[in-house]
Write a structure and sequence with these properties.
The complex is a heterodimer of chains A (about 350) and B (about 350). Helices cover about 70% and strands about 5% of the residues of chain A. With about 350 residues, chain A is mainly alpha-helical. Chain A has a single domain, classed as Orthogonal Bundle (ABC transporter involved in vitamin B12 uptake, BtuC). Chain B contains 14 helices and no strands. The longest helix of chain B is centred in the N-terminal third of the chain and has 35 residues. Classes of the chains: A mainly alpha (about 350), B mainly alpha (about 350).
């Protein structure tokens, strides 16, 4: 916020100044660097694995040339959809976290900390265990319903007469998460053991099963949710200054906040329905974006999405390459980065405890 | 505050009533213990259970079931339930924090983490070392959680302690999962070390852990009167001649030993130390001379009951015990946080 107003801008004007584009320089540079880094990691990720492929062959394959049937198969059928899913899921979780933090004005909010991911997980596990014959296309919807219910419960429980308190909100989320996770575990005990084992890998936040179908699901939802989020980003920046200021600036605060929460919950729920509750990405990415390049809300969201994507692709790559052939779910690695950050943020938080 | 006034606060309001619960609890404990042994995949009549315990006959199959399978598990439930709820009660007293619980403040995660790391990566199999390892882990986690909370703006309040504990537990939980994946251990084992369970635990460990628990239980009972005073505030306690610094160290030692030994036996069963003291307080008030024995007995009965439910809820499968303690405890936690931050 502070720095956003001071950032240097590159202003592009059309002849006679009908249209002007004001671009924050630092954010643009950071965005460029992030995209380059993302491309680099994606290429490495595509080349790395139990079946090694030379980087050049990967690029040729992606351009449509058939280097060999095996490489074609490995890259197109397994690694490329998996990497794309990682990118999409990372971006969605990250934006969900940014929107949650903005809507609740709580820097510690993360979809996995406030129970939203766990709600989605419970809904999906219930669906797969109790109604195994139901089509997988219902998964995202079930996840969304479960996540929404939990989000409403957390909001309701943490509301006080004086308004919500930061710490209370997070603690409510932790309590509810513990409760919901225990039901999920019980559900898995009840279910078929094979199914439960599949659900278990998924519950740790693992991308290894993602295929083209998941990529299309994620893309379709993102195509709806991202424009919504960007459309309200202007009002979101007004909300950064607090509710009173936003009302004073003429923002439809109530509507925007509810919309923002709904989009945040939906983003987290859809991502969760594909890869499971991937923790802490929504906490890390917005804070990293704010540090790297303070920017206006729309730019902040885009940077956040890029960082989230980078984070998850990297976590997935490390998780499957570092201890091959053992695969470490990406969610465990993001937790290892996320928790220390959470502690740092806790130490820096304003004294809202009592 | 004069000593007379203080003793008035300390004395139980209803001495008769305070005594009265003990025989009831003992009877409940005996009943739950027998029921726990009788219930299972093969239902045994209570008569057979009592017979197996009093006049054991190795040629009778049901007697063998009782002594080899059911009895060890029931004993584990009693020991672990009593230890964890006593640890929770003492923590709540010494920190004057209604949200204190060995699980919420990261102690169980620390103990679990230490045991998993040592057994996975060093190949130590000496059972006598396990309690020490668990104690080191619990103590380390407790200190880290405390120091993080200490430096949060506002200080080590119940809420900041809980957040710090949750963070440390999440971190250690991720590390435990990774260690299990790398060690290629079974899912059942992983679940024990993440949520706790009483199924298939090694009863022989009790020979190494039991003495520690006995010492700590005795210590808890001996320190209980001074905890009552400490719960009224450091200054009051000092005014009444309690050396608060030394007492806190002693209590920390008792809590760490109880928690670590429970975790070594049954994994990090959650929320028992939170739930039981709150329930007990409804009956005996705030006098720790009563809270301590009541918490231990009630905790034992509670874990026996939970474990019975865990085994019969969805036959023929068994729910992990830790899942049910979390299911019961988490709503109480939410309620307490709401009360705390009104």
């Amino acid at each position: 916020m502070r720095a956003a107003t001071h950032a240097r801008h590159l202003v592009l004007r059309s002849p006679r100044e009908r249209v002007a584009l004001r671009l924050p320089l630092r954010a643009m540079v950071v965005l460029g660097l992030l995209l380059v880094a993302l491309l680099a990691i994606v290429s490495v990720s595509l080349a790395t694995g139990s079946y090694g492929v030379a980087l050049g062959d990967v690029l040729d394959t992606l351009r449509g040339a058939t280097v060999s049937r095996a490489i074609d198969n490995v890259v197109w059928e397994f690694r490329f959809p998996r990497t794309l899913a990682a990118i999409l899921v990372g971006a969605m979780m990250a934006m969900s976290g940014a929107a949650l933090q903005n809507a609740t004005r709580n820097g510690l909010a993360d979809p996995s900390l406030v129970g939203v991911s766990q709600g989605a997980a419970l809904a999906v596990v219930t669906l797969t265990v109790v109604f195994p014959d139901v089509s997988g296309n219902l998964r995202p919807w079930a996840a969304f319903a479960g996540a929404t219910l939990v989000a409403m419960a957390v909001q309701g429980l943490s509301r006080t007469k004086q308004g919500g308190s930061t710490i209370r909100f997070i603690l409510m989320g932790i309590g509810l998460s513990a409760f919901i996770s225990s039901i999920t575990s019980a559900m898995m005990t009840y279910g078929d053991i094979d199914r439960a084992m599949a659900a278990l890998a998924w519950l740790a936040g693992s991308i290894n099963a993602a295929g083209w179908h998941d990529v299309w699901t994620l893309l379709a939802w993102l195509a709806v949710l991202l424009p919504m989020l960007l459309a309200i980003s202007r009002t979101m920046s007004a909300l950064r200054f607090g509710e009173a200021a936003a009302v004073g600036l003429g923002a439809p605060v109530r509507l925007v906040r509810n919309l923002q929460l709904a989009v945040a919950v939906a983003l987290a729920a859809i991502a969760t329905s594909v890869v499971g509750p991937l923790g802490f990405v929504g906490l890390i990415a917005p804070h990293a974006a704010q540090r790297l390049a303070p920017a206006g809300m729309a730019m902040h969201l885009i940077l956040t999405a890029c960082i989230g994507a980078l984070l998850v692709v990297l976590a997935d790559l490390i998780g499957r390459a570092a201890f091959a052939p053992i695969q470490i779910p990406a969610g465990l690695l993001t937790a290892l980065i996320g928790v220390p950050l959470f502690v740092v943020l806790l130490l820096r938080s304003r004294a809202t405890t009592h | 505050m004069t000593a007379a006034a203080a003793s008035e606060i300390v004395a139980p309001r209803h001495p008769v009533r305070a005594w009265s619960g003990i025989p009831v609890l003992l009877a409940l404990l005996a009943g739950a213990f027998l029921l726990h042994i009788a219930v299972g995949a093969k239902q045994l009549p209570l008569g057979t259970v009592i017979e197996a315990l009093t006049r054991f006959d190795p040629t009778v199959f049901d007697h063998v079931i009782v002594t080899n399978l059911r009895l060890p598990r029931a004993i584990l439930a009693v020991v672990v339930g009593a230890s964890l709820s006593l640890a929770g009660a003492l923590m709540q007293g010494v920190t004057r924090n209604p949200l204190a619980d060995p699980g919420l403040l990261g102690l169980t995660a620390g103990a679990s983490f230490a045991v998993v790391m040592v057994t996975t990566f060093t190949g130590v199999t000496n059972m006598a070392l396990v309690p020490w390892i668990a104690m080191a882990g619990a103590l380390g986690a407790a200190l880290v959680v405390y120091f993080i909370a200490r430096f949060v703006p506002g200080g080590a309040t119940p809420l900041s302690l809980t957040l710090s504990g949750a963070a440390i537990s999440a971190f250690l939980g991720a590390l435990i999962s990774i260690a299990h994946l790398l060690g290629q251990d079974t899912f059942e084992n992983l679940r024990v070390w993440l949520t706790g369970g009483l199924a298939g635990r090694d009863i022989n460990l009790l020979w190494y852990v039991g003495p520690w628990i006995a010492i700590a239980l005795a210590g808890g009972l001996a320190l209980a009167p001074r905890v009552t005073v400490l719960a009224m505030g450091d200054e009051v306690a000092q005014g009444l001649g309690v050396r608060t610094g030394r007492l806190k160290v002693q209590l920390l030692a008792v809590v760490v030993v109880l928690t670590a030994c429970s975790v070594a036996l049954a994994g990090p069963l959650g929320f028992i130390g939170l739930v039981i003291p709150h329930v007990v307080r409804l009956y005996v008030g705030s006098d720790y001379r009563w809270i301590v024995p009541y918490a231990a007995l009630t905790g034992a009965v509670y874990l026996l009951g939970v474990d019975i439910i865990a085994r019969i809820a969805i036959p023929p499968r068994e729910i992990s015990t830790g899942i049910i303690t979390a299911m019961v405890g988490a709503p109480l936690f939410v309620h307490l946080v709401r009360q705390r931050t009104r």
